[in-house]
Amino acid sequence: QVHLVESGGGLVQPGGSLRLSCAASGTVFAIKTMGWYRQAPGKRRELVAQITSGASTNYADSVQGRFTISRDNGNNTVYLQMNNLKPEDTAVYSCNIRGETPVPFAYWGQGTQVTVSS
User: Fold this and answer.
1) Which of 40, 61, 94, 109 is placed for a possible disulfide with 4 were both Cys, Cβ 3.0 to 4.6 Å?
2) Is the distance from CB of 64 to CB of 80 less than 8 angstroms?
3) pLDDT at site 100
């Protein structure tokens, strides 16, 4: 069984920074893509950022230039550095991992609350 454990959420003032972490525990092979999604109240879940095993990244337009995703393959961990946070970044952030070996798989974390408010 694979579990994703997230940490790093919290309350921060506009313009502040937070760093989210998500570590996968259990037996998992060849994680192809690791990503962060978020869902604000009354809104659909959206992709924030993702990174492939080859370190290719893509970001939502709304966070481009402010957020940075990275991964530690040796520890099956993905990070999201969030700078210059805005109130509209307030949401529950969840990590996701996907792969295809030995069979296609996808796992989600439980989510961590990020609140940007003065």
Assistant:
1) 109
2) no
3) 87
